[in-house]
Amino acid sequence: MSKLDWTRDELLADLPYDEPLVAGGVRCHGGFRGGRYVSPRTANRVPAIDAWQARLRAEGHRLVDVPRAFVPPHYPNYPQAKLLLQEGVRDPVTRSLTLISIVEGFGARIRELSLPDLRKEVVEDLSGTALSHLEGGLFEAHARDEAGWREEGGHKQMWEAARDLGLAKPEIPDDVLLAMMMGGGRGERKRLFPELSHRLEDAITFMANVMVVEIFAEDVFEWAKKLLGDPEVSADPAGAPALVSHIQADEKPHVEYLRTALSELRARTLRSHEGKSQISGQRVIDGILETQLRQMASTRPQRERADVQKAIRLALDDAPRAAALATRFEGLDSGWAFPEHGDSRLELTLP
Amino acid sequence: MNPRVELERGLRAARIGYTALCVWLREKIPAWWDRAWGRDPAKRNYSRIHQRNAEQIFRTATRLRGLLLKVCQVVGTRSDVFPPEYVRTLQRAQDRVPPRSFEVIRGVVEAQLGKPLDAVFSSFEPTALASASLAQVHRARLLDGREVAVKVQYPDIEHIVRTDLATLRRICILYERFDPQPIELLPLLDELQTHLALELDFRREIENADRIRALFANDPAVIVPQIDYAHSGERVITMELVAGIKANDRAGLEAAGIEPQEVVQGLTSLWNQMIMGLGFFHADPHPGNVLIQPGPRFVILDFGLAKQLPKGFGLGLFELMFSMMTENESAMIRAFKELGFRTKTGDPESYRRIAREMMSSARRGDVRGELTEEMTDELMASIRKDPIVSVPSDFVLVARVFALLSGIAHTLGGRPNTLDSLAGNR
Q1: What is chain A's mean pLDDT, rounded?
Q2: Is there a single domain that holds both residue B319 and residue B170?
Q3: What is the pairing mode between strands B130-131 and B306-308?
Q4: Is residue B373 part of a domain?
Q5: How far is residue B273's CA from residue B253's CA, in Å, rounded to a whole number?
Q6: Above 0.90 for ipTM, yes or no?
Q7: Which of A4, A248, A254, B303 has its CA 20 to 30 A from that of B146?
Q8: Number of domains into which chain B is organized
Q9: By a Cβ cutoff of 8 Å, what residues of chain B touch chain A?
């Protein structure tokens, strides 16, 4: 059997590379070996995740997944964003790319996640699992990838560089941070499994949330690569999308370790807060994941869509031929609806 | 001019001059002594001397009041420039201002409103609710029954400010002529003069209050008292009297069923929203200027010191805090530059050193994106150590705001989470 136990240093170790990645003048993580991009901290992290997943499958369990049908398309979509840039309305795209960079950076908050003592809250043994390595290097590697560490920039800085290369260092709209601050929710989140400890439910919810965000990001990568790689609107149609591809490559281990850890919990039994009863991990993980998805793939995109539309309308007011442009812009909308209940595409595990 | 007034001004200038001379001699004599004995004065510990000087300045200021109290308050906020003994001691000027007599106040209100007091108010409390360096506040009731707070500027304050500024300017010029100062005092005085000119015109304070009220018009958790424009002007502001618990009154908050941590997080979110989101902020959130109501709802008072930040400042500050939290040294250095920190030589090592000191401070606790009082102090201390670094005045003002909020959080036993607030969680 492949090695299942790893030290923190092993999980944070880099593969060797010949030259570092420098993006927009900023030294970033990772580098190039034989001309190919090498993601940071993947010397052992990738084989470790493969080994944990292989073990889970060998034990007859499935891996959790978010089907493509759930993923809302980026708004504005590629043709819409291209139209805006061609017409000189740059703020909505700049704002969008800047928000992506900030949200990526916020991914580093995963290192703040305070896990409960899983050995006490999970009935079965956890040795040799991704779960037992979350605080032993997996969260830290994820955090460093997203926000950078010490001398190296991370995804936040790489997205900023991609934006600045593609849009020739655009002026950042003043309201970027305000848009983010106004977007959050207030008040306590409703608990789905009050019999579990607060910390366990919070930790699962947080991880499920991050995993869904990471999977949703796939669509963002494709959107950004097309837009920033389009020579008609991009100032650097080679360099800017290449950076996005590197980020996309770096993100794969994030999705996979979270998918693995959540699947491991799904395959186990959880103890109630007072230790009096036991709950199926499958019930908990599926319940939380479904709720997260429903919220993130329906309510949130609707709100974000409304915000972006408002910002675009404001920007279009200043643009020449505003009314005609608005009509053309709306005509390019691809639309999207949350999948119906009972849809066969909604299976939340991989075959 | 009235000879009595002239004499008073002369005496005032003489007292200020005497204090300045004492301070200067206390700093210089030990240095001369050291040099005479072949010792390096820079190696002497000046802590006790600074403390004595600060105490004397504080005594003079509380006696003469007016501009000197304002100067003390400013020095008390400039930990990037002045030694900690001055900063700590002179900070006390914030809450040691004895009120002026009711008769004096009545005169100002009647002159401003052009009517006797009882033609506007059915009652007017003779005892002040609060007093500060330039004005004091009285509770009153309008003839239509509305309860109001009336902020009244001291009658002779403009003349006192002018006299004191002239005296202080002469002293600074003399200081610099006799001995080049390690601290550039005249630019600080210029800055103070600019701020004071704005603060002395209450119409500007009214505009600030209106602007912040408009910014939070859709947020029921934020209350900015309504101004009674008909009974306000250059020297008097009549505003809605809004009740609440002082932001640092932990027992009071708990007795009212308000969770102190919610107050801490709410205050952080509000000021982050103003500073990083809106670019216009109330720059003096000391506990007396923020009252809390159940909810919690935040009553913001006193808009004399409010500031419009330059474009890009909010994002730059966010980058600095974020890079600090994520231990990203190179991003921190870029943020310093974006915010307008400058070195004479452009040597990146100065930024790097400051970044490292701040991060080592951040690592001692699990930093959650906040600029704490301790971290601000350490940043300013490391900047003082290296005179080639200059700090943008906007940053100093913002750092002071965060230090004040951190002080409130400390008193309430809570911890703010800046990143939570940026993610929209209040």
Answers
A1: 88
A2: no
A3: unpaired
A4: yes
A5: 23
A6: no
A7: B303
A8: 2
A9: 269, 272-273, 276-279, 311-312, 314-315, 318, 322-323, 325-331, 334, 366, 368, 419, 421-426
